[in-house]
TrEMBL record:
Its cofactor is pyridoxal 5'-phosphate. Homodimer. GO terms for biological process: amino acid metabolic process. It catalyses: L-aspartate + 2-oxoglutarate = oxaloacetate + L-glutamate. This is Aminotransferase. Keywords: Aminotransferase, Pyridoxal phosphate, Transferase. Its EC number is 2.6.1.-. It comes from the Bacteria. Belongs to the class-I pyridoxal-phosphate-dependent aminotransferase family. GO terms for molecular function: L-aspartate:2-oxoglutarate aminotransferase activity; pyridoxal phosphate binding. Residues 32-392 form the Aminotransferase class I/classII large domain. PANTHER family: ASPARTATE AMINOTRANSFERASE.
Length: 400
């Protein structure tokens, strides 16, 4: 009998972290590798946020805090929800964790019993199914193909709901596709949910601020206030504020759920880093102007990547609404063979050969539950993106 928990047999390590690690190892070994795998902005945390953290250290704000966040941060989060989403929450309805990841994990651990189902539209952020499995639940994956813009239709949602459904995990704009739901598209889904009062909504709004062009972000309870009592609205400072390493995520929802999440956190990691919490207070309360500036750069990069990938033979790359990812289809490459003699029968084979033969690291689509595709993170320099897309074009042109 293995010494390790049987639960571990149900999950796999994060494939996105695996790709970034492999790319870093190849680079360290002297290979010319361009990494398009990382899910984080390439720019630094803004200075005023760093200054708030330094001031917190100098003022000795370096002790334990309340397990699920200090009052000043909880208030800043309530103010953010009111100001940006028109949602009224009290501090008792707010939970702060060590990254958005811990918040989602706490919520699943706090609510899932064996056999409970969680609906996850695919392509999905890699951690959702494995977190559900770790918490003892059953992921119910609903494939949302490129033809419907990678969005779940109300019919698909209706068909996926059973008496065992506990949660729908909703993510717009999405990692890995960048697809966002308009207010009308979201209303069509919330109408279905209103007919099934036992289903709760875990909305992962991590990419809220990274929304481009005409696309306007909206969150389920904003669109359907009737869902307020069974929605956990999750968010964080990692992406829009370039604070991935600070590890602060948060959520707001019903008091009973928040208390259950606090219980788990108090017996696992205790509080999120006190200094990071002070940085997050400044991120939420301070100027938001730099976000629009950064978004101009993201739009330029998105357009560059979409255009160059669509010029590659066999690739079809839709234009995303937000986040910093594109999720092109490689249907036109399947069945071909690379110059190095590798048969491209899956997107995993495509990504592996692209890394080995051209030194470009992308994450294969099967990691996100929808194939044959790959994900490019365009949160890197224009020069690196141009070079990487040129190599992808060459790679596709060389397939026979
Ligand atoms: C959709 C989505 N949700 C949550 C997270 C987790 O964010 P954090 O770094 O705050 O844990 C990520 C990070 O990649 C993400 O892409």
């Amino acid at each position: 009998m293995s010494f390790l928990s049987a639960t571990l047999d149900r999950v796999k390590p994060s494939p996105t972290i695996a790709v970034s690690t492999l790319a870093a190892e190849l680079k360290a070994a002297g290979r010319d590798v361009i990494g398009l795998g990382a899910g984080e902005p390439d720019f630094d945390t803004p200075d005023h946020i760093k200054a708030a953290a330094k001031a917190a250290i100098d003022a000795g704000k370096t002790k334990y805090t309340a397990p699920d966040g200090m009052p000043e941060l909880k208030q800043a989060i309530c103010d953010k929800f009111k100001r940006e989403n028109g949602l009224v929450y009290t501090p008792a309805q707010v939970s702060v964790g060590t990254g958005g990841k811990q918040i989602l994990y706490n919520a699943l651990m706090a609510t899932l019993n064996p056999g409970d189902e969680v609906i996850i539209p695919a392509p999905y952020w890699v951690s959702y199914p494995d977190m559900v499995l770790l918490a003892g639940g059953e992921p119910v994956v609903v494939e949302c193909p490129i033809e419907t813009g990678f969005r779940m239709t109300p019919e698909q949602l209706e068909a996926a709901i059973t008496p065992k459904t506990k949660w729908l995990i909703f993510n717009s704009p999405s990692n890995p596709t960048g697809a966002g739901y308009t207010r009308e598209q979201l209303k069509a889904l919330t109408d279905v949910l209103m007919r099934h009062p036992h289903v709760w909504v875990m909305t992962d709004d991590m990419y809220e601020h990274l929304a481009y062009g005409d696309f306007e972000f909206c969150t389920p309870t904003e669109v359907e206030p009737g869902l307020y009592d069974r929605t956990l609205t999750c968010n964080g400072v990692s992406k829009a504020y370039a604070m991935t390493g600070w590890r602060i995520g948060y959520a707001a929802g019903p008091v009973e759920l928040i208390a259950a999440m606090r219980k788990i956190q108090s017996q696992s990691t205790s509080n999120p880093c006190s200094v990071s919490q002070w940085a997050a207070v400044e991120a939420l309360n301070g100027t938001q102007d730099f976000i629009a500036e950064n978004n101009k750069m993201f739009v330029r990069r998105r357009d560059l990547v979409v255009e160059m990938l669509n010029a590659a033979i066999g690739i079809d790359c839709p234009v995303p609404d937000g986040a910093f990812y594109v999720y092109p289809s490689i249907k036109g490459c399947i069945g071909k063979t690379t110059a190095g003699g590798v048969k491209i029968d899956t997107d995993e084979a495509f990504a592996k050969a692209l890394l080995e033969e051209k030194g470009v690291a992308v994450v294969f689509g099967s990691a996100f539950g929808l194939s044959p595709n790959f994900r490019v993170s365009y949160a890197t320099s224009d020069d690196a993106l141009k070079e990487a897309c040129t190599r992808i074009q060459d790679f596709c042109a060389s397939l026979v």
